[in-house]
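Q: Convert this sequence to structure tokens.
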Amino acid sequence: MTSVGQKTRRRSRHGNLAVITGLIAIPLAMIIAMTVEMVSLTNERARMQAAVDAAALAGARELAIAGANARNANSFAETFALNQVSDLSTRVTMNFTASQNGNGEFQVSGVGVRGSFFGDLVPPGGFTIRVSAVGEAMNQQPLCVLVGPLSHTLKEVSLTARGNSNIQAANCLVHSNSTLLTSENAVIKAGTIQTTGTADGTGFSPAANTGAIKVRDPFATRVMKRDCASRWINPNPLKISGNTVTSLASGTLNRELIVSGNANLTLGRGDHYFCGGVTVEGNATLKGDNIVMILEGNKSFKASESTTLSLSGRQTGEWAGFLLITDRANRSDVLISSKSADKLLGTIYLPSSKLIINSAGQVAQDSKWSVVVAQDLLMDKNASLVINTDYEGSGVPVPSGVGNKLANAKSGLRLRR
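A:
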């Protein structure tokens, strides 16, 4: 039989074991909790580092666009980084800052503070997470196609390619401030393709970057004279038809111009203001060197299928580098259906107008360079728009804000921490 003393000693040992187990359990639980917290801290640091890495590359990509310093790439990158780790905000207070320098480097830094042990006493004030990354633009991508909206009052716009059409813009940037759409085997090929909105369809080479920041109108500060506003507009068009071969001096034409039949019209060197629009139809030819065509009011430019266009922009003067312009009040379409529009050298600037290219062949392929800045762009019916970038080989200068502002080469990005 077990004695009373033995039972007492056994109960004492059990009690001591419980006390010892309790004493061990407390620090063990603390160690487990600290381990879990440190693993979480490591994961949060890794997430924040990945966020600044991505934001630095995104910011560097924005700097790789000609004219990028006119836009707020810093704010874009900071918001971009924060969006990558928004799910951490319930336990980590985060702040991201972005900066850039003139060497094509874009830095994004982040600081996060999260709770620490014993009421933020160990370490005092909580854990501090610091991360940083530098994205470097190796060179700059010229801007060759910009689709609006260029005005805050005009929003429903896009760059659309359909009906087996294509844009060939090697070594330069195609950008939409709204949406991109390809359908019916249409293709957009460029050095870089990007949009602030969505990119629908599969015809993008390379794949389109979405979520880009808006590109402002590079020519918004240019003053457009309204030569037609105070003039009497002749309701009778100037018709050049048949087999006529003639020329038209620069200046202001206060009526519509219609070139038809087999007529051949050469625009004289200088600035041409058209108060009544321009129509080229039949088998007619419209040509001119060192010229700019400015359509005032709600007037259009139309070149039908069998016509020939051979035009190069101004080499000097107020509109040096420009070929075709609609004023900011003009919302009429510019339609190029000509299957022989081989030369369109210069900048086509349509701040409130749509450019429609639905020719049966290539457009602008013999131009040293071309730039399109338009409210909207529609490619259709097998048309092919060729954007060349031989800026140095042309006598027509490139306007500031587009083209080769810093370089004419493929873009490249590099990440440094």
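Helices lie at 4-63, 73-84, 117-120.
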